[in-house]
Amino acid sequence: MAKPHRIQIVGGTKFICREDERVLIAMERCGASDIGVGCRGGGCGMCRVRVVAGDYRTGKMSTAKVSETEREAGYALACRLFPASDLLIEVE
Ligand code: FES
């Protein structure tokens, strides 16, 4: 069973996301709507966020929506974001 982590949105809600679950999908499952939802496939950029604190990994993301430099600065697409610890996330 994958570990559950706590996801806190800066100035927003808090929800649980398992290590093998995408943050955007977990947010929807919990009935929250802090992060924009679009294609859910890493292409549209609607779900762009910045991870302020915590460890995570990402799946394939459009480099047009998150450049390499931005990725290094913590930007990610929530539909391609998997938590590896509790996370603090900022929505633009
Ligand atoms: S919802 Fe389209 S990139 Fe995440």
Summarize the structure.
The protein is mostly beta strands. Helices cover 13% and strands 34% of the residues.
Secondary-structure topology with pairs:
Blueprint: E1 4-9, E2 14-18, H1 23-29, E3 48-53, E4 56-58, H2 68-72, E5 75-77, E6 81-83, E7 87-91
Parallel strand pairs: 1-7
Antiparallel strand pairs: 1-2, 3-5, 3-7, 4-6
Bound molecules: FE2/S2 (inorganic) cluster.
FE2/S2 (inorganic) cluster (FES) is lined by residues 37-40, 42-47, 77, 79.
Report on the architecture of this protein.
- With 92 residues, this protein is mostly beta strands.
- The protein has a single domain, classed as Beta-grasp domain (Ubiquitin-like (UB roll)), CATH 3.10.20.30.
- 13% of the residues lie in helices and 34% in strands.
- The chain has two helices and seven strands.
- It has helices at 23-29, 68-72; strands at 4-9, 14-18, 48-53, 56-58, 75-77, 81-83, 87-91.
- The strands form two sheets. Strands 2-1-7-3-5 form a five-stranded mixed beta sheet.
- Strand 1 (4-9) and strand 2 (14-18) form a beta hairpin.
- The structure holds FE2/S2 (inorganic) cluster.
- FE2/S2 (inorganic) cluster binds at residues 37-40, 42-47, 77, 79.
- Residues 37-40, 42-47, 77, 79 line the site of FE2/S2 (inorganic) cluster.
Summary keywords:
92 residues, mainly beta, Ubiquitin-like (UB roll), five-stranded mixed beta sheet, 13% helix, 34% strand, binds FE2/S2 (inorganic) cluster
Give helix % range. 10-25%
- Low-pLDDT stretches are none
Largest sheet: 5 strands, mixed
Number of strands: 7
* Nearest-integer average pLDDT: 97
Judged by helices, strands and strand pairing, the structural class is mainly beta
What portion of residues belong to β-strands? 25-35%
CATH structural class: Alpha Beta
Distance between the termini: 32 Å
Secondary-structure element string: EEHEEHEEE
Q: At CATH's second level, what is the architecture?
A: Roll
Number of helices: 2
Widest sheet: strand ordering? 2-1-7-3-5
Give the CATH superfamily: Beta-grasp domain
Ligand names:
FE2/S2 (inorganic) cluster
**Shape, per Cα inertia axes:** globular
**What does the radius of gyration come to?**
12 Å
How many structural domains? 1
CATH topology: Ubiquitin-like (UB roll)
